[in-house]
Amino acid sequence: MLAGNSVVGVVIIEEFQKCHLDHPIAKLFGECTDLKIKLDRCFWQEKALKRKANFEESKKLKERLEAYRKESSERNPEENNFMQS
C-alpha cells in the first residue's frame, strides 16, 4: 500500500521520517526498526497486489493475441504459411 494508494502507508512513512528526525543517533541502534518493518510489509503487500494485477492483465493480453492470431490464420492461410517458413 504505497504512499499514494493508502492512508496507512502515508502515516507509516511520516512516522518513520519523524522517528529518523527525532532520533538521529538512536536510529542507528534500532530505534526506528519497528516502523521500518511495518513500512517494508506495506510495500511488500503493494507489490504483491501490483504483481497480481499485472499477471491478470497479461493473461487478457495473451488471450487477445491468441484470438487475433487464430482469426488472422483463418483469413489468410497462405500468408500464414509464408511467415512460418
Automatic annotation (TrEMBL):
Keywords: Disulfide bond, Mitochondrion. InterPro entries: Cyt_c_biogenesis_Cmc1-like. Coiled coil: none annotated. The keyword Transmembrane helix does not apply. It is found in: Mitochondrion. Its main location: mitochondrion. GO terms for cellular component: mitochondrion. It comes from the Eukaryota. The keyword Glycoprotein does not apply. Pfam families: Cmc1 (PF08583). Belongs to the CMC family. This is COX assembly mitochondrial protein.
